[in-house]
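Repro case for the chain-ordering regression, as requested:
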Amino acid sequence: MFLIFKRMWQVNWAEQWQYRANLFMYVLYWIVQPVIYIAVWTSIANAQGSVKGLSANDFVTYYMAMLIVDQVTSEIVVYNFAHKIQDGTLSGEIIRPIHPILTNALTNNIAFKALTTLVLLPVWVMLWLLYTPIFASTSWVNILLSIPTLIIGFFINFLLSSAIVCVAFWTQRVWALYRLYGIPVALFSGQFVPLQLMPKVIQDISVYLPFQLFKYFPTQLILGKLSGTQILQGYTMDIIWLFIAFVIFRWTWANGIKQFSAVGA
Amino acid sequence: MPSNSIVVENLSKTYQVPEREAGFSAAVQSFFKRKYKDIKAVHQVGFNIAQGEVVGFLGPNGAGKTTTLKMLSGLLHPTGGNATVLGFTPWQLKPEYLRAMTLVMGQRNRLAWDIPAADSFLLNQAIYRIPDDEYKQTFKELDDLLELAPLMKKPVRNLSLGERMKCEIAAGLLHRPKVLFLDEPTIGLDITGQVRIREFLREYNKRTGATILLTSHYMADVTALCERIIIIHQGSLKYDGGINDLSRKIAPFKLIGVRLADADSHDLSGYGTEVQNEEDADKRYIQVRAEDVTRVTSRMLADLPIHDITIADPPIEDVIEQAFNQ
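-- result from build under test --
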C-alpha cells in the first residue's frame, strides 16, 4: 500500500507541476481573502480600540493561524474529480483494484497542498513582517495538540466534499451543490469571521456541526484560546464527525457507482 | 473441457435517456418536465466462454458490444440478468477480480495524460502488486513486440493515437490478466502495428491460457485470432458459434472465381449471381448456394474456356453484414 501511495505521489506531484502557473494564480486568489480580512478588521479594531474584545493583534494572529489551518484542511476534490464522473474518464480508475477517491484523489489533494505551500510560505512571512503579530498564548503543546485535529479535520472535510462529488453520479454536475455547501461553511466554520463575533445562536449550533472542526477549532487551539474542556469537546466531535463523514461518503459512493454510465469511454 | 471463465445469463442494460426537441421552448419545457426514453442497449444476452478461448464480439455501431464489455468488466451495473467472470460478479468490483482482468478501450484510460507513460506504468506496477522481476520481464516482452521504449519518456498527450494505443494495451497487460476485454484493440494502428498486436495477443493467449473477448472493426483481427464469434445486433444475440460455421449457417453460399480466356465476353448469369470481389482483378466471381457448387462448377468447366478456377467462402464481412440484416 505504501508503494502505491509513493508512486501515486510521484504521478500526482508531476501532474500538479505541469500546471504550476495556473496553480500559483489560483493560490494567490485564495490567499488574498484572509489578507483582506486582516486589513479590514485591523483598521476597525485600531479605530475602535477593539471589536467585542478582540484587538488588532487578535485579528492578525487569528487569520494568520487560519491561513495555515486552511492550507492543511482544505480540499480540491470537486475540482479534480467531479469532471471524471461527468465525462466518463473515471472508467479507467474504477476498474483498478484500488479506491479512486481514497487513493488517487486523496494523493492528488496532498500533492496540491505540498505545492501550494510553496506559495503560502512567502506570503505568510510577508504578513509577519508587515504586522509583526504577537502569538502570546501559543505554545508548543498547543501546536502539537492541533496536529491530530488538523489531520482529522482535513479528512472530515475531504470525505464530506467527496460525498458531494458522488452526487454527480446522479446529477452529472455538482457545482451548484458544492456552492451550497459553502454556505454552512461560511456561517459555522469561522473561516471568514471569527466565530466569537457571530450571533450567539450560530456559535451554539456550530459546536455540533462539522464545519468549525476543520477551521475554527484548530485555529483557536493553536492560538491557545481553548480550555481543557473545550479541547476535549472538540476532539470528541472530531471522532464523531469523522465517523459520520465516512459513513455518508461510503453510502454515496456505493450507491452512486451503480448509477455510473461510463459515457464516452 | 476447461471450465467456463465467463458466464452470461439474460444480461440486460436499459439506459434512461432524457430526450427533447430542439429549440428554446422545448428546452424550457424539459426543465420542468423531463421526458425519458428507455434505450435497450443490451437485451437478455447470454453466452459462456471457456477458459483460454479467444472470442470475437461483433456487431454494428450501437449494437451493445461496448455496453456488454463494460458490464463484464464491472464498470456498469446491469438492469437485468447476471454474469460471472472467473467466479466473480464483475460489478461488485472486488479487488481480486480487478487484479485478474483487464479492459482495454480505444480511448485514453489507464495512462495519466500529462506525464510520461513510464510513470503510469510504475504506478500500475504498484497498484497491481507486480513483483519487480516479473514486471521487468513482462515489460521486456511488451517492449519487444510493441517497441515501447522510445515512447515511454514523452508525456502521454504528446503521443500519436497509435503510439498511445500501444501504451494503453501494454499498461493493461502489465499485470498479466487472466481475462482480457479488448474494445477495438488495434484502432488507430497502422497495418504493421495491427499485425503486431494480433501476434502478441495470440502469443499471450497461448502462453498464459488467458481468455480473450475482443471487439474490432477490422475483420482481420477477428479472423486471425478468433475461432468463435458472437454477433449482437440491436442489443440481442444473433449468432454464437464457430467463425467457419458462420457462413454455412447465415449465408450458405460459396464464391466461385474463374479466369477466362477472353474475360468479358461471356455471360455468367446462367450459373449464379455475379458479384464484385477485389481480391483478384483478373477473375470474375459468382455466388452460388453451397449445395449447388459441384453441379455449377462442372457445368462451367464443360461450357467455358477456363484457365483457373477457385471455390471459396464469401468474405466474412459480407456474411456478417448479411447476419445483421436478417
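Ordering looks correct now. Chain B has two domains: 4-246, 252-325.
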